[in-house]
Amino acid sequence: MSIFVIVFGIFSLANLCINAGTASLQSQPNILFVLVDDLGWSDVSFHGSKIKTPHVDKLASEGVILNSYYVQPICTPTRAALLSGRYPIHTGLQHGIIHNGDPYGLPLNITTLPQKLKKAGYSTHMIGKWHLGFYNWDSTPTYRGFDTFYGFYSGAEDHYTHVQDHYLDLRDDEEIVRDLNGTYSVNAFAKRAQQIAKSHNSSKPLFLYMAFQNVHGPVQAPKEHVDKYAFIKDPVRRTYAGMVDIMDEAVGNITDAFKEAGFVSNLFSLCRCLRTGQNRSTRRKNLSRPKQGRKPTTSLRNIRFSSVFATGDVSRGGPSATQRQKFLCCWLACENIRFSSLFAAGDVSRRWTSATQRRKFHTDDANQFLQNNSGSHGFPNINLSNFRCLLVDFGKVLCPSAKKLQQNSNVSSRVDYIPQILTPPVPLVDVALYNITADPYEKYDLSKKFPDMVKKFQDRVQSYMSGALPPANKPGDPKARQVAKENGAWTPWM
Predict the structure, then answer these.
(1) Coarse DSSP helix, strand, coil percentages of the chain, rounded to the nearest 5 percent
(2) CA 242 to CA 221: how far, in whole Å?
(3) What confidence tens digit (pLDDT) does each residue in 180-191 have?
(4) Which of 79, 115, 309, 312 could join 145 in a cystine, given CB atoms 3.0 to 4.6 angstroms apart?
């Protein structure tokens, strides 16, 4: 998603939502946040795909297309940044993902976006994929700010059986859901979203975080949706197209339910992608041209996507698009502007608050963000205006070798390295600088031509490193599987 649209949305919503202490219920918008997992840049109709996405396209045509929206390349760090407003290096979740049995999660001392919205009077609901830890109940959604939760704790599971690694993983709040074997997850999630919209008490504003399992693997979709794409010869790609198709249908059903409930005139809706690169197990699955790279690296292809942002005010202005850049944790900063009396500063909120006061969004601070992960999934890089700088030398400091991490930080042995996961292998350099507007393929390294700019990037990363936390990773706990066996489902065990 692009920055200018986010900024435009902030100003639009700032007119609707004043300080939480004095805002009337009518002034607070209902918020529908739709997250699509693993969708490729080129896999939506408004980017020319043969996969039809009419409902997402409709949101795009009525709102603003954010064409330079950046995410982390893998699940856990992205979701942590979204809900905390902090970069992964400031949550300890920068190294890999949380696996079933890992005894850690999003730090409990971090106040989340739904917790802040609850303080502002919102009814908060989550549907779909959590993937921020469930080693104890305090780490699960209904203890992290959501009034209700309907979904699964882990990172991926069978779309029909809802089983992950031999055990069921599907919850209605804290209760295990055992009667949906054979029901495709998107259908179950969309149905619950429609029920929430229909039954919502309009005396309170509504926040719904709809975190689809689609189009994350395993690659599965109902036959009637796959058959629409019989012209696609590759069976994996064809099934993937069906996954996109049914996701788009669900987006239409959910937005229609919001309209029928009378929310459309005061609705802030966002449809965004989690990450865009190809999964190693399904390399032919999604398309991210012209961006380069594969999941889980921090190449441009894998961290930049186009998302859709619309409000009642924005939608009336017709379709528009922007290339201005922003990182996903800016959404909590957006809330920080609207409910300034409630929100502690995150990594971007200080910049956004300052920029909002000046009503200027073209400064370095407003256009600069850190995109980082650990050495196993891409080295730190930082964006500023049209440039992106990759700093492998800093990556060695932020995330030393896997062996050293395991010795010093109790990091599990589940570590992959870029040369091993990419085919063909990609040579690593210490520093690289790209103009990502003129060179989206990132072919031309400008670091030697602009050493002063590289130094500026290095200084900024150094400032972020001063507050970096060590990776929170811990070895898997055997007790988790024992408790899962006793319950027939993955369950908090500590």
Answers:
(1) 35, 15, 45
(2) 6
(3) 999 999 999 999
(4) 115
How many C-beta neighbours within 10 Å does residue 462 have? 12
How many residues in the chain? 494
Cis before 424? omega within 30: yes
Alpha helices in 348-450 (DSSP H): 349-358, 364-367, 392-398, 402-409, 418-421
The single residue listed with the structure tokens 């507007």 is 437
| Cis status, amide bond into 427, omega within 30 of 0 | no
- State how far the Cα of 395 lies from the Cα of 333, in Å rounded to an integer: 26
- Could you tell me how many helices (H) and strands (E) the chain has, helices first? 17, 17
Catalytic residue among 47, 131, 162, 216: 131
Instruction: Clarify whether 17 is annotated catalytic.
Output: no
Q: Is 75 a catalytic residue?
A: yes
pTM of the model: 0.80
H helices within 120-184, ranges in order? Answer: none
pLDDT tens for 384-416 read 667 777 775 544 434 333 334 334 444 433 333
Task: Answer yes or no: is pLDDT of 272 > 90.
Answer: no
170 φ, ψ to 5°? -155, 130
Among the listed residues 17, 75, 273, 329, the single catalytic one is: 75
Beta carbons within 8 Å of 74's beta carbon, 6+ residues apart: 96, 97, 275, 295, 296, 373, 377
Within 10 angstroms of residue 15's Cβ, the number of other Cβ atoms is 11
Gap between the Cα atoms of 380 and 396, Å rounded = 9
More confident residue, 297 or 253: 253
DSSP state, residue 181: T
Give the integer Cα–Cα distance in Å for 28 and 13: 8
Closest CA to 311 of 14, 87, 106: 14
Q: How far apart are CA 422 and CA 170, in angstroms?
A: 33
- The three-class DSSP label of residue 61 is helix
